Amino acid sequence: MTKIIRLENIFKVYGSGETEVKALNDVNLIIDEGEYCSIMGPSGSGKSTAMNIIGCLDRPSDGHYYLDNIDVAQMNDKDLAHIRNKKLGFVFQQFHLLPQLTALENVMLPMVYANIDPAERRDRAAEALIKVGLEKRLNNKPTQLSGGQQQRVAIARAIVNRPVVLLADEPTGALDSRTTQEVLDIFTELNSSGITVVMVTHEVEVARQTGRIVWFRDGQVVHSNLTPADLNHLAA
Ligand SMILES: Nc1ncnc2c1ncn2[C@@H]1O[C@H](COP(=O)(O)OP(=O)(O)OP(=O)(O)O)[C@@H](O)[C@H]1O
Ligand SMILES: [Mg+2]
After folding, report:
1. Has this prediction a pTM greater than 0.90?
2. Of all helices (H) and strands (E), which one includes residue 103?
3. Atom of ligand 1 nearest to the CA of 202
4. Which of 71, 96, 105, 173 might form a disulfide with 101, Cβ 3.0–4.6 angstroms?
């Protein structure tokens, strides 16, 4: 089994002196290719900081991060952007779609940076939108879509470059329970097709649908391999 994500002794410090915050304080974590994993823990415990490092949106202050066996911790911006575009997809709580573009155009965008042949972009974007059940909404702009539909466009955009890992930071945080389930069903399906999925959530009912739960507290991983059943004890 490939260790697709390997964090070794990761520290992240914000600020300095009196305002210094140790957001991550010696994090070690291994996620295997094909896992469906959720990250939980109190507010401020370092979940988003860890996700941003895993997603190559930020660098650790210290430590090693191996993504698919490549040490990316100290890569320069250009190489980091390249590897992010090639291997990772990211979904956020706020969908971050460009309002002036249609669903199709939003999903085509990552392929511009990935140097995909222009003729192929439209086909692949449409294919990704069909995968998330939006075949009838290709030409709608974000304001013409519901929250759940906008998040599905964001998921299509995240998978269009065929990433190895899909990262999601509270992807259902802005959704009602019915659309939350729609999004989770898409994640389950993507995971079944082989994509590694890592998702931050505050909701036990969401975490329960993943295979493994990692628990953060005070910038550290305090439980690295909880099962959905273990959540009953923690909640109690
Ligand atoms: N850019 C930043 N500058 C300074 N401090 C930061 C920055 N980003 C995060 N922090 C601090 O780092 C710590 C971890 O923050 P982080 O956003 O990772 O927490 P979280 O677990 O995602 O919380 P939440 O559940 O509220 O989203 C917090 O104390 C936070 O205030
Ligand atoms: Mg967060």
Report:
1. yes
2. helix 103-113
3. 25
4. 105
